[in-house]
Design goal:
Elements (H helix, E strand, L loop, with lengths): L2 H22 L12 E8 L5 E8 L5 E3 L3 E3 L8 E11 L2 E9 L2 E9 L8 E6 L3
Parallel strand pairs: 1-8
Antiparallel strand pairs: 1-5, 2-3, 2-4, 2-6, 6-7
Length: 129
Amino acid sequence: MSHFKKMALAAAFTSCTAIALSISGSSHTANAASTNSVRLELCNQGLKWQDLTISGFNQNGQKVASRDYAIIGRSWKGVDCKKASDYWWKTGQVIDLNYHTPDGVITNHAEIPLSAADGSYYTVLIGND
């Protein structure tokens, strides 16, 4: 193989390796975030079914709104909890809990303390009817 072909192959291999490393490092996880972040566990301590969305800052500092969560009310089995594992929330902030009711949206707030363990689930109590 000529020297020119060896150099061209080496350059192509280096380019492919750089692209592969770039692609594999592009996912956004809590561990790669610049701030501590948690996922939420929503626990409905009320008797009524709760339908809500959450808004606040994610692990990358962007203002986001979650998908809709429906959590049944407390029963003889106890408090119903649901892990909202599809969103990461920055610690040290107050998030909005947007309850969807027949009369419109009612917004309450919950604090995620700065001391919440990075990468963990933080429990938020909802529904105190």
